[in-house]
């Protein structure tokens, strides 16, 4: 707790508010489902939606936003450099079929895609650190927009941070003209994904754009332009927004259907498939070969190495992660991950070290709540490089996975400035 | 009837099982005019052989509308229906996009799983359940749609794919069930066969947790057989959830692989 020793208790930059009474919380839950498309409010025996808010000082929200913008700027510069060096792409464990597309010359490629990212910040004993960036298909919009707003109505003296869905929709509308069509591509079989796209679609519709919910496999491409010719929708979308992970696309449809995501598309995309270079948890493994200054990344991301460089992987001070893991799945942390699962992950890592990373473990500072100590995480969105919202989660252990709860993040109203 | 009213009828705040009621179809439902009383005439005798018992939970893995109808019959006998249907009825969401007209009127052929009758019966059920008195901790009846994976059909890129699977995290744990007095699970299917593979992942966990699993055919719900749930492929595997989506394209062998629970949203 070295870092905290320098602060007084009142300076702790984040704390939990009181639990809402269950009757009030139940009403918010219902509104979250029907007003904001929160369709997965239960996971096993626990509610996905937390009963307390995370409360931030204004200056902390500004600091997190600034850090996320710096991280985005550095990351995009690094991405350009990586894409021009095919040897580096290989080290990121990007599947060969996708790499071959990314390695093609950039003739005719569109460059004004909308880029959205989310950086996951943790308050640790060494200050703020990040565990990762979701640079490909970040989720959490439903909660970071809807749940934050719903909770803000309940607490005087606090307000919801900027709404990431609104910012994202505004950025899309900057490209798609009024009345234009936006295809929202996702795995239609997953209601967890469909809820996010329905939520975004509603926001787009309120801005006078048309939207349709499709699977990536429903898209055709003609001379690089996306076309819809299904039995249920036809037309040429002015933009395609994606929630299916880029590395899965080759498994979802024929090459002609997924290849344009990685370079040939002249239809605007969000995010383009090249975001995979930053999504790979192995991104830090190529830092030393880049000219880009990654000072903020080096400061905030724990040291990350290839497991092949570490003699003993079964250690307390290491976190093992798959290069393309999602939602905290298959992350191994000794003492937090169930023993059998930890051992199975270790075996997987040893079998194929190039698909994993080993990260130095940081110590997250727990916050007291009415339900006991919880470990918070604040996701900070950027849209086209600008801070675009805050997404709170908290877990009973220092690992944010499917068992974590979505927690509203609110900012103390001590100034009239809003975090933008 | 508004979508939230339909949902609240199926998931009333006082039921201990309501948190598990999956909102997905309700958030996308539109209920037209219904003659619920007349429709319910055909349902009355479906569940004659079943009476709620404090240690019993039921799973209905039947074609969607059939599951809903039987659950309503069971509700009239004191059971609490809990819909776990996680599929989206179609590409349009009229309840959310009231002015969205880019999509054509969708025919059943353009959708992998036709849910129209299931939704119709959820609407009828909402009216019916409002008049039934069910205790807060009544024996639960979990509803699935046995046609959820669209088995045996070939879906091209022109079709809206709304198939789905059920996962252990969609249900209460064995621990929760035991703490609430549930000791026996009765699985009702078209015939007394092994449970569907996705459901076997749930049932095996419950079996390992100390619950007894019985199965009965819908034609003889009063003649259950004790079954032993066999280990399904990928049971407890690291990537079980994370692999699920990839199985949605047809494998070269003609079957489906494993599928993940969600894809994006990292």
Q: Explain this structure to me?
A:
The complex is a heterodimer of chains A (420) and B (266). Chain A is globular, with a radius of gyration of 21 Å. In chain A, a hairpin with a 2-residue loop joins strand 10 and strand 11. Chain A has helices at residues 2-5, 22-36, 58-83, 86-91, 96-102, 141-152, 164-173, 191-205, 249-252, 255-258, 276-279, 295-300, 339-351, and strands at 14-16, 42-43, 46-47, 49-56, 116-124, 127-134, 158-159, 181-185, 210-214, 219-222, 225-229, 234-235, 239-242, 268-270, 304-305, 318-322, 332-333, 356-360, 367-369, 372-383, 386-395, 405-412. In chain A, strands 1, 4, 5, 6, 7, 19, 20, 21 and 22 form a nine-stranded mixed sheet that branches. Chain A has a four-stranded parallel sheet with strand order 9-8-13-14, covered by helices on one side. Chain A has a four-stranded antiparallel sheet with strand order 15-18-16-17. Chain A is built from 13 helices and 22 strands. The relative contact order of chain A is 0.20. Chain A is an alpha+beta fold. By secondary structure, chain B is of the alpha/beta class. Chain B contains seven helices and six strands. In chain B, strands 2-3-1-4-5-6 form a six-stranded mixed sheet. Residues 248-265 of chain B have low confidence and may be disordered. The interface between A and B is large, with 69 and 62 residues.
């Amino acid at each position: 707790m070295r870092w905290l020793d320098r602060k007084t208790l009142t300076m702790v930059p984040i704390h939990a508010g009181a639990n809402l009474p269950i009757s009030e919380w139940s009403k918010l839950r219902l509104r979250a489902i029907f007003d904001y498309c929160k369709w997965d409010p239960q996971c096993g025996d626990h509610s996905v939606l937390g009963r307390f808010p995370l409360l931030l000082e204004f200056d902390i929200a500004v600091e997190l936003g600034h850090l996320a913008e710096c991280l985005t700027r550095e990351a995009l510069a690094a991405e350009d450099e990586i894409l021009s060096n095919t040897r580096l792409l290989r080290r990121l464990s990007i599947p060969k079929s996708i790499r071959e597309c990314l390695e093609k010359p950039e003739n005719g490629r569109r460059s004004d895609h909308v880029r959205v990212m989310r950086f996951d910040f943790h308050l640790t004993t060494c200050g703020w650190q990040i565990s990762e960036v979701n640079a490909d298909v970040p989720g959490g919009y439903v909660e970071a927009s809807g749940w934050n707003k719903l909770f803000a109505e309940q607490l005087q003296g606090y307000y919801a941070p900027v709404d990431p869905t609104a910012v994202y929709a505004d950025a899309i509308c900057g490209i798609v003209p009024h009345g234009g069509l936006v295809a929202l591509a996702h795995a239609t079989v997953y209601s967890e994904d469909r809820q996010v796209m329905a939520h975004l679609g509603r926001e787009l519709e309120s801005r006078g754009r048309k939207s349709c919910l499709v699977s990536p496999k429903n898209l055709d491409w003609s001379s690089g332009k996306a076309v819809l010719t299904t039995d249920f929708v036809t037309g040429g979308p002015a933009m395609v927004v994606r929630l299916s992970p880029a590395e899965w696309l080759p498994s979802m449809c024929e090459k002609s259907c997924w290849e344009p995501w990685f370079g040939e598309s002249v239809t605007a995309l969000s995010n383009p498939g090249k975001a995979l270079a930053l999504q790979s948890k192995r991104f830090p493994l190529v830092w030393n070969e880049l000219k880009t200054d990654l000072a903020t990344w080096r400061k905030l991301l724990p040291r990350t190495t290839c497991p092949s460089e570490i003699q003993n992987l079964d250690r307390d001070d290491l976190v093992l992660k798959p290069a393309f893991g999602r939602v905290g799945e298959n992350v191994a942390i000794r003492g937090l991950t169930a023993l059998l699962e930890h051992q199975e992950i270790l075996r997987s890592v040893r079998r194929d070290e190039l698909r994993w990373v080993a990260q130095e473990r940081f110590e997250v500072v727990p916050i007291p709540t009415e339900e006991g100590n919880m470990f918070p995480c604040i996701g900070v969105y950027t849209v086209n490089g600008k801070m675009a919202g805050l997404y709170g989660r908290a877990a009973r252990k220092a690992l944010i996975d499917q068992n974590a709860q979505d927690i509203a993040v609110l900012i103390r109203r001590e100034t009239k400035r809003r975090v933008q | 009837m508004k979508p939230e009213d339909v949902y609240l009828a199926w998931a009333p705040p006082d039921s201990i099982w309501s948190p598990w009621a999956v909102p997905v179809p309700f958030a996308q439902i539109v209920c037209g005019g219904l003659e619920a009383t007349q429709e319910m005439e055909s349902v009355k005798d479906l569940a004659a052989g079943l009476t709620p018992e404090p240690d019993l939970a039921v799973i209905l893995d039947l074609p969607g509308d059939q599951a809903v109808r039987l659950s309503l019959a069971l509700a009239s006998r004191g059971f609490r229906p809990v819909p776990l249907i996680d599929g989206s009825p179609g590409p349009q969401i009229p309840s959310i996009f009231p002015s969205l007209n880019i999509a054509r009127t969708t025919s059943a052929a353009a959708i992998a799983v036709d849910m129209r009758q299931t939704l119709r019966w959820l609407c009828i059920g909402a009216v019916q359940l409002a008049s039934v008195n069910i205790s807060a901790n009544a024996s639960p009846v979990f509803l699935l749609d046995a046609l959820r994976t669209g088995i045996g059909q070939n879906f091209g890129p022109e079709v809206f794919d709304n198939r789905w699977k059920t996962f252990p995290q969609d249900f209460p744990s064995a621990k929760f069930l035991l703490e609430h007095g549930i000791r026996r699970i009765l699985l009702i299917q078209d015939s007394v066969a092994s449970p569907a593979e996705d459901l076997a992942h749930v049932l095996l966990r419950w079996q390992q947790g100390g619950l007894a699993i019985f199965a009965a055919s819908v034609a003889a719900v009063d003649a259950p057989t004790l079954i032993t749930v066999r280990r399904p492929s990928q049971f407890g595997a690291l990537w079980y959830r994370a692999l699920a989506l990839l199985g949605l394209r047809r494998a070269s062998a003609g079957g489906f692989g494993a599928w993940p629970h969600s894809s994006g949203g990292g």
